[in-house]
Backbone:
């Protein structure tokens, strides 16, 4: 299987996925975001069509149905609504029908900034969250808005986890 | 290309940096013709296993090496060291497809990488490209973008179609058949077997 991991390459996730014989495509999505939109107003820059085009080309330039699963983690929280819709649509196209996408959203409604993490899979039951500082999320997501966000997918499941995180598993 | 075969600087402070090593120079190496004949011939035997491209060197084209190579300069093209180790130093910038036995990255590589043994991406290194390797180590702080395809040792898979032949092949087949059977039965089982080994 081919798995997309947007948390950035780290040893534990690489070992976990590849030990199953799967192929892993790894990229640091947040770093790409910062690279494309980081200078000046982060969210204002995300409305610039040229910057968006550059970003999508550098971060999500894959053929349709290229992946059997996607580990998106918390990166969708840092996308302005317009870019978010494009990214989710792109992710849907990149996934094979029936495959799954894992995303994580913070649960704190009024927080101005939320902790950002590098997610590392340590085993079947353990995910390590390595801190990457705090970031201002673009918007807050509740169950309803998440359902709307992933409305073109087959199904959406929510799980409340520790650390004020909501885990979302979406089936393409 | 005078930097080819340049070893640690302290060993070569007295060696004149001459023009590019013409093919004929290889033949001369056995003959003590330099200013330090005795020491030079000795050091050739000891250190000729690692070539170094210094940080002020830029190479565009193909590099084939039959010894370990350290690149601390810039390379564009292809780099091939089938049986040897390539080290991309902290100043190294490689825009090339790379084939080697082992790769250590401290600098930057843009290009696809294939090793038969191991890739080691150190802290602050940057690798953009697809990787095919048997083993990989990624230090925290390294940046990697691309596919990782772990190529397992081929013995069990090569043996997979062989269970049919009778008694003659039983001894080698006996050791490999359980995992081969697992891998053909289901990918999950095969993965489990691989994991158990670790």
Residues:
């Amino acid at each position: 299987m081919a798995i997309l991991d947007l948390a950035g390459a780290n040893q534990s996730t690489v070992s976990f996925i590849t030990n199953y014989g799967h192929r892993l495509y790894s990229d640091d999505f947040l770093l790409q975001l910062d690279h494309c939109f980081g200078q000046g107003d982060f969210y204002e820059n995300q409305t610039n069509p040229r910057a968006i085009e550059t970003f999508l080309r550098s971060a999500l330039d894959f053929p349709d149905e290229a992946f059997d699963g996607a580990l998106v983690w918390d990166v969708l929280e840092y996308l302005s609504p317009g870019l978010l819709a494009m990214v989710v649509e792109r992710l849907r196209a990149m996934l094979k029908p029936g495959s799954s996408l894992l995303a994580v959203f913070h649960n704190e409604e009024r927080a101005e900034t939320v902790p950002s993490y590098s997610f590392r899979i340590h085993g079947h039951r353990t995910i390590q969250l390595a801190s990457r500082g705090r970031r201002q999320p673009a918007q807050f997501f509740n169950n309803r808005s998440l359902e709307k966000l992933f409305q073109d997918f087959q199904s959406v499941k929510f799980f409340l986890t520790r650390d004020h995180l909501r885990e979302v598993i979406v089936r393409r | 290309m005078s930097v080819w075969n340049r070893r640690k600087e302290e060993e070569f402070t007295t060696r004149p940096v001459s023009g590019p090593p013409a093919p004929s120079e290889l033949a001369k190496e056995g003959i003590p013709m330099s200013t330090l004949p005795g020491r030079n011939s000795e050091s050739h035997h000891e250190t000729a296993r690692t070539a170094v491209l210094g940080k002020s060197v830029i190479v565009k084209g193909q590099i084939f090496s039959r010894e370990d190579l350290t690149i601390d300069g810039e390379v564009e093209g292809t780099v091939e060291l089938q049986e040897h180790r390539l080290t991309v130093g902290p100043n190294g910038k490689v825009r090339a497809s790379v084939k080697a036995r082992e790769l250590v990255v401290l600098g930057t590589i843009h290009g696809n990488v294939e090793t038969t043994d191991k890739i080691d991406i150190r802290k602050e290194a940057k690798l953009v490209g697809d990787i095919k390797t048997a083993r990989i180590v990624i230090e925290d702080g390294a940046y990697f973008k691309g596919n990782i395809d772990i190529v397992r040792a081929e013995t069990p898979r090569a043996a997979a179609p062989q269970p049919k032949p009778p008694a003659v092949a039983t001894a080698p087949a006996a050791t490999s058949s359980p995992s081969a059977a697992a891998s053909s039965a289901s990918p999950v089982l095969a993965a489990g077997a691989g994991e158990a080994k670790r």
